[in-house]
Amino acid sequence: MSQTKSFNLPDLGEGLPDATIVEWFVKEGDVIRLDEPLVSMETAKAVVEVPSPVSGKVLKLAGAAGDIVVTGHMLAHFEIDPNLPQRAEGQDTGHHHGAPAEAAPVPVAAPAPAAAAAERADEGTVVGAMVSSNAVHTEQAVAVGGVKAMPAVRAMARKLGVDLTRVRATGADGAVTMNDVKQAAAAGTAKVGATPAPAPQAAAPLAAARAETTRTPLSAAGKPMRTAPPGMVAKGQPEPLKGVRRNMARVMADAHSKVVPTTLNDDADIHAWMPGNDMTSRLVRAIVAACQAVPAMNAWFDGDTLTRTLHAQVDIGIAVDTDDGLFVPALRNADMLDARGVREGINRLRQQVEDRSIAPSELSGYTISLSNFGMFAGRYATPVVVPPCVAIVAAGRARFQLTPVMGGVETHKVIPLSVTFDHRACTGGEAARFLRAMIDDLALAH
């Protein structure tokens, strides 16, 4: 009798509770060999390739692209082929891949309805690496459907509605690159033609249905319409959060339940700045100066053990806003960088976030963070401190204001600053001195 094996989704990094299917490299009924790419999965930080743990026939797959699979639940079910290479027991990865078919079945993530699965939007793709067997497998371009591309590139193509089979590949060995996909999307030369246009007769009922639901302030009798009562449920199709946005929801809720936040606001006068000053670089320098003046704000705090860790280096998490959610890559050793080094480092991090090529390790481990939301709009904020950090700085939109000076008033440019700190680990005096140190450094001409 043939032996079967269930493969459960392993922990793809840092205890993540689930992952989203980006793309299967096989279908049910296919034969796959040991360590060949099985599926690409998107976590909160990475799109990673999961290799096959066995050689054999694929009997069942957990879901379709876009479905969420819980860590430890069945990802795939195989019929093992004894004539093909298998991993010896002593070479086991340490991940639990499930038991033979005689064991109790493992619950699987229920696939979404077919209508919702027809068009799945990828969320927050980041390129990374995963541990499998006894080695680290970095992401590689894989040929699927005659097109060679990395999982992150495929995810981006799906997001932008680009048909990879119609994209001109410029990468090594004929692989489609991220830039190829973006250029095709901008040119509109490779749009996905999922289904043919509906017949004219089919469009008529749809138009009639839309006409029936068209909003109007008047009833059929020509009288003012009564608005819906507050208890009415809003119309629309709920969709599960995925990837970065899903993780953001968890992290923010966790931070809200643990941190005791307090926020201070003030303005930094930058009237003395000479031409050529870079706003973000100066903010980073001011944070470094403030951390050196008040080390208590450049720290981690463990609320369970009530312990505090002060850091000698200043690693600043730079908040990067994307359509997929919030990324916070770390600008390492900011205290050792000059203005040029800071700008180059930030540009590199932003580019890697945009290309989804940033390593997961670069998205954690910072000692304090900065949100420069003022580049869009807004003056003051109450930014969220994410444990284990104890402080975050937010800079609002710069503005001009009348400033009293000896003999009258002048128009000075100022930057609104907000500092949120965890009052379990920092005092109000420490936060105020930190803010004062930032303001003093920003007031310098260079």
Automatic annotation (TrEMBL):
Transmembrane segments annotated in the record for this chain: none
Assigned keywords, A-Z: Acyltransferase, Lipoyl, Transferase
Top-rank taxon: Bacteria
Cellular component terms (Gene Ontology): cytoplasm
EC number: 2.3.1.-
Enzyme class at the top of the EC tree: transferase
Residue span(s) of domain Peripheral subunit-binding (PSBD): 148-185
Domain Lipoyl-binding: 4-79
UniProt cofactor(s): (R)-lipoate
InterPro entries: 2-oxoA_DH_lipoyl-BS, 2-oxoacid_DH_actylTfrase, 2-oxoacid_DH_E2_comp, Biotin_lipoyl, CAT-like_dom_sf, E3-bd_dom_sf, PSBD, Single_hybrid_motif
Pfam families found in the cross-reference section: 2-oxoacid_dh, Biotin_lipoyl, E3_binding
Positions of region (Disordered): 220-239
MF (Gene Ontology): acetyltransferase activity; lipoic acid binding
Subunit composition and interactions: Forms a 24-polypeptide structural core with octahedral symmetry.
Family, similarity comment: Belongs to the 2-oxoacid dehydrogenase family.
Protein name: Dihydrolipoamide acetyltransferase component of pyruvate dehydrogenase complex
Organism this protein belongs to: Stenotrophomonas pictorum JCM 9942
